[in-house]
Amino acid sequence: MDSEIRLRKAQMNEKELIWNILQQAIERRRLDGSTQWQQGYPNLGTVESDISKGFGYVMTVDDEIAVYVALILNDEPAYSTIEGAWLSNGEFVVVHRIAIDEKFAGKGMVKILFDHIEDFTRSHGIQSIKVDTNFDNMAMLKILKAKGYSYCGEVFLAGGMRKAFEKIII
Q: Are 164 and 146 a contacting pair, CB within 8 Å?
């Protein structure tokens, strides 16, 4: 695959396209029988907020948006309370709201995304990446394991308990 893959900040004029990708992901979670993202979150307002705060990122394949993700530096209040223990107390990147365009599904895009997030984290001199997912999001649990993330415990987020993971980058 000689495609050019890039991770860059999302632009406000891309919010409808991103929301469309998120809606596909919400539906995929529902069809998988997951409770994650089934209560009206995330929504278009979430996307607008992410982009305006500089958290919204897209991974493009030949300039076409394939994946949306929110990358937040050092700020996830829910992570200050964990049933368990984080690996580190240093600076971290929080990964939220990963959504992949149906057209790019099943092509290993999320694994590539995590490689890009690790590069992003390293280039900013940040110690680790923290991420949480629903206990029934099997696809994400498999990817986190494959990418070497350590299970740290559970956090309470968006109305439910989530499995929390961390990977030390530097």
A: no
Please state whether the predicted TM-score (pTM) of the whole model is above 0.90. yes
End-to-end CA distance of the chain: 29
| Residue 130: partners with Cβ closer than 8 Å, 6 or more residues away | 76, 79, 86, 92, 93, 94, 95, 164, 165, 166
Two tokens, residue 139 = 């696809």
**Residue whose C-alpha is closest to residue 140's, from 25, 9, 7:** 25
pLDDT along the chain (170 residues), means of 10: 89 97 91 82 92 97 96 91 96 95 93 96 97 90 96 90 96
Q: Which domains does the chain have, with CATH numbers?
A: 5-168 (3.40.630.30)
Question: What's the DSSP call for residue 149?
Answer: P
Strands 5-9, 92-100: pairing is unpaired
Q: Are strands 92-100 and 128-133 parallel, antiparallel or unpaired?
A: parallel
